[in-house]
Please model this.
Amino acid sequence: MQLDQKRSKAECDGKAPDGERLFRCTLGFGIFLASDEVELLPKEVADGFAAVLAPESELDVTAALSELVGLSGAKLQITKMKQGVEVQKKREALGVCGGKPLHFLFRGNHGTGTSKTAKLLAHLLRDLEVVASGQLIETSRQKLLSGASDVEKQMNQLWKCAAGGVLMVNDVHTLHDRERSRDSDGLEASEFLAKQLSGMAAKCSGESATPCFPQPACVVLTIPQDAVLPDPLQREKLIVVDFPDYSNEDLVQILICIVKNRKFNLAPSLTAEKLMPVVREAARKAAGPLDKNINMLQRLVDEAITRQTERAYSQDTISLHGLTTLAEEDFSDGMSLSRDQEISVALKKIDDVVGLDGVKKFIRSLHAQLKTEAERRDAGLAISGGAGSLHMIFSGNPGTGKTTVARIVAELLSAMGLLRKGHMVEADRGALVAGYSGQTALKTKAVVDSAMGGVLFIDEAYALVSEDGKDSFGKEALDTLIKMIEDRREDLVVILAGYPDEMVRLVSTNPGVKSRFPTQVTFEDYSEDELLRISESMLKTDGFLLSTEGKECLRGILSRVAAAKGREQGNGRSVRNILEQARRKMAVRLQGASARGGARSKEVLCTLEKADFV
Model:
């Protein structure tokens, strides 16, 4: 709104929450817009619950469903529900009762269209006279129970507000926290909802059944795909509707719709094909389930509009087209590395690793395979099975670079868009196995959850299974791990690492490991020359040098290290220990000579001599 005339601060009528001053306009001065051209605020009812009212006009179901991008399962369920209601109402008109009230369970992550579908559902149920008014009230545990001193009173108020409409309880699995031994509030709220649902169902069943419709209210519960309903609600009859994560193709179409709804336009050159890499990259960098799907797209558009605003200001743009057109450059921050650059950085890191020619060859072949499949996917070619299982077994003696290579693999898979985060979580038997019966599965699950979107690296994995097969705790951890990685194979890569002989035993004694970890990478022991190169690299990183005699003395020591075979060699770990010992001897040597006086040069302070290795 534009003020009719300039006002002084003294005439301010108040301040908005963001600190902006508010002034009252004189009657009749302002701009009037049709209600369908603006987004109306939710109606505040007396008790503070916000309700979204269903439009007065009748819903065109076919057109409304066609506007929903993706969600084929939800569309089918809504269509079947509509048909079922129409048939049941005909039965009730003939005096045949015994139907079931309509209540729903929406299963899916945040941003998968559950709220939009619930608004459409409320409108449709009002038109079908399943509910009287069709208002939608959305709530959650945080909104419902935070600060509530009397849960029963709060729930009764909520149910009173929802009467004649749809009550949507988001993340209902959090309503009863199973990890808390005494969560009486959440349990009471769950039991209240279960009682209402059971009461509605009871009136529509038995010999004295009454008509189902209109029903007092429709309840919609939402949970993530792998979550569990609170115990009191598990017995209730709910229509299950699945909301899977959107495909990249769907996300591109939704992005175009969001831009249009914001009254912006896309530059003609910014086609759906050009937006696909932008969406794919945003999905790869999404922080977690809360930052995926539509939530991710909203953030993406917000950032693009911010960059476009800065560009329009710098160019002194005044035309409507210039002020509202988003170009390709607006969807790139110009600071982050591109995917190709990130891949190149990861591959350079593996090239810089000393030795391990066989491992490098495997990494290069993996990159080539994944890149080819990405190109086939972008070309619209069907890919049966994709890259298959990316879980791996790294077998090698201590100090052969297994952990280092695992970190690079995580970076590479993340850069190629196969992992959301690309972080690596290191674990061993102690991190997975608990000391009490029934706790190991929970402990293992927590570790796997922390690695989602990245790589779980389990060192000395063979320790999970004893040779006599009597370690029930370790077996429980391994069984839990195998089941979880099977269920979450799209968002997690697991690498089992350990000594060669022990890893062979692990694979041979557990068929589940063999089938789910098809890729086995062998890390060979380092040669004398490779150990020397590792030594020089470590010293250079820490700012040390080797004198000519010191280098020859070190070579002799490393020759004996390389001659030792098996796990006794130590490889890179032995090199690190040798250099640490030499640096301590160097410090003693220099401090012993301090009595001679005079400042020592930088070269003397950082050069390891032969005496330091003897």
Summary: The first helix runs from residue 61 to 67. The CA atoms of residues 459 and 549 lie 38 Å apart. The chain has 22 helices and 18 strands. The first strand starts at residue 14 and ends at 15.
